[in-house]
Amino acid sequence: MRLLVFLAAALFLTAVHAKAQVYAPYDGYEEYDGYSYDDPYSTYPPPPYYEPEPDYREPLQERREPSTRNARGTIIIATREHTLIYTTPWGEQFAYPIAVGREGKQWYGSTRVVSKREHPEWRPTASMRQKNPRLPAVVGPGPSNPLGTRAIYLADGLLRIHGTNDPSSIGTNASSGCFRMYREDVEELYDMVQPGTRVIVQR
User: Fold this and answer.
1) Percent above pLDDT 70 for the chain
2) Is 119 an annotated catalytic residue?
């Protein structure tokens, strides 16, 4: 009888632990081969509910303005200032705080938006899962997804502008090359930009 009670308790604890699994921000999920999987831009239904995220943003007027001027219809990323500025085709400007790549992981140059995806999946590569066997094959949309609620794909899939499940990283050099934004900011940008939008990444 005691053995049965012990086994039942062990099964219950295992089930609770499995259900409570949360995937914290992984320190290598944005490696350039981190999303080389079949049909990366296919649609995926949104999750039924998202927990609201706290607003960690600083007022933009207190931030140092990037030393650059934007062409219309262009995204300019000022890496040193941790700022992304989008100038609409009609000349209106939107500035957002972002997280950029860590030292040695930063990229500079000119590229373009190639695709967008709402509620993206995150699929760790085989090398990531080899380093961390606890990583799943895929993380679906939801609060634990490191890509957040939106992903904007650049450079034919080599880089992304996306949300994050670690908003405290915004304003720092935290990623492996991609550009993280607050949820409400990336959702606003996502609605405005279209494939073909020019993106300039500056130092």
Assistant:
1) 65
2) no
